[in-house]
Amino acid sequence: MVQAMTGQEKIALINVNLQEVLKPEIIEDVIIKQNRPLIIYWGTATTGRPHCGYFVPILKLAHFLSAGCVVKILLADIHGFLDNLKAPIELVKYRAEYYRFVITSLLKAVNVPIDRLEFVLGSSYQLSEKYTMDLFRLSSVVTEHDAKKAGSEVVKQVDNATLSGLIYPLMQALDEEHLGVDAQFGGVDQRKIFTLAAEQLPKIGYRERAHLMNPMVPGLAGGKMSASDPESKIDLLDVPEVVGKKLKKAFAVPKETDGNGIISFVEYVLLPVSALKSGGHGRFVVERRDGDPLIYESIQALKEEYKADKLTPQLLKSGAANALITLLEPIQADFQASPEWQQIERQAYPPPEIKKKEKKVKDKGTKRPILDAAKGVEAQPDGHVEGIRKDEVNLSSGADTAMEKLDIKSNGT
Predict the structure, then answer these.
(1) Any alpha helices (H) in 29-150, and if so which ranges?
(2) pLDDT digit string (tens) for 34-63?
């Protein structure tokens, strides 16, 4: 596919479904004038379990690879730790490995060649002397206000935030230089960090890069798809029954396309996947019990019929569920066939410990015999004791003997 494409065709494929591109002339210069592959990096903090929302950036990486680009995926383990401790430092190593398995399988599932794909672990170079010195240099030209503003859409915002949230955007900017790329790719929520990089890197002697941005796709509940909200996302390992159940509960107002997470998923995942697999136009098929299937080759046609209520929310959900289950099958087959991946999954995301409730011992009063384990005796309700050592603690039945054992002298003796 790559050899048959002209420079302009490659650029057109790179730009498909992007919301915004900053400095597109850098991309044109590399592909048209320099006539070499564009080197792009995409970073992902290795925190929560990757879900079906990851298909959105992965589909763009597939476009980049199909256009002959060199794609570097930064498994940002240190970033994951810095972002308000989203990932415990003890788990980031395993989670980075889990992400590598997932992303590789996602790209294989859409029939994209991965010979130009490279994984880079953030801690493999971000702890070096040169990187640390560059971080100090960059921190000397970036104000606290600008660093906080840059990370406001990405870094978790909390009261009395730690300094790690200010370091995060500086490192993301520096990664462009230390990974040796021409462009960085991410969601539109990264725009402020991209702007920081473009403005500040030249101040410490490094060149400006291009930035490519995907739109933010609504989750199933109508908001941002999030790994921390189980109802807003579908896990890549969810079984068909769970996929169908979650999609049935998904947010889909009849005749309204804005904020509809299922329509967005069709637009940015299911149609592009179909196009990559067929090598032509994408197709989204909706089976109907009482008629011929509805077939859509463009998102515009789908939206028009949804607004006209020909494509109902129930039909949309059913069609999306069938297509997604088919898409997940090879990924789940890879997981089942790989004991190594299964082991990493258990280490990266161990099940939460179930705390057992402590049983409170009820006080039954003096009616309950008390066992003195240390002395081997048991007190009886009438006051006398039984047991193998009763003679050692029994004060006898007579007062004189008892007083004698207690070494109490009676009056007048």
Answers:
(1) 55-66, 77-82, 92-109, 129-139, 144-150
(2) 999 999 999 998 888 899 989 999 999 999
